[in-house]
Amino acid sequence: MKILIMGLPGSGKTYLAERLQPLIHAAWYNADKVREMAGDWDFSEQGRKRQSERMNTFAEFEKSHERNVICDFVCPTEETRKIFNPDLVIWLDTIDEGRYEDTNKIFEKPNSVDFHIKEWKEDNHEFIAREINNV
């Protein structure tokens, strides 16, 4: 299963991924680490599409080996989410705006999500893991 944890910068994506990953025995790709490996810090429209494609490539590799995979990244537009094409979406809607104005301006609220987290709770990851493991 290919899982997208998305939301504005500072919403808690990495924090959630770090706690969820061992509970569902998933591979985990963090956007900042992937950008660092690629040496690509381009946040233009094309750079964001390229990052979504890059994250999708890693996720599809894991999925093709029948492993769950979590990718945590902003994935700010419907187009970048379409490129990534997740099986399950967790939207961390915990802040009104992130620390980067350019991202705030282009961020589109997703039309469809599987988990919409509006408030951080210490057991969010446990609840989500139970739901995923029961699928």
Structure in words:
The protein is of the alpha/beta class and 135 residues long. Helices cover 47% and strands 16% of the residues. The protein has helices spanning 13-24, 31-38, 45-64, 78-84, 101-106, 124-133; strands at residues 2-7, 27-30, 69-72, 88-92, 115-117. It has a five-stranded parallel sheet, sandwiched between helices. α1 (13-24) packs across α6 and α3 (45-64) packs parallel to α4. The longest helix is centred in the middle third of the chain and has 20 residues, at 45-64. The N and C termini lie close together (10 Å).
Run of helices and strands: EHEHHEHEHEH
What class, by secondary structure content? alpha/beta
Largest sheet: 5 strands, parallel
| Order of strands across the main sheet | 2-3-1-4-5
**Net shape:** globular
Low-confidence stretches: none
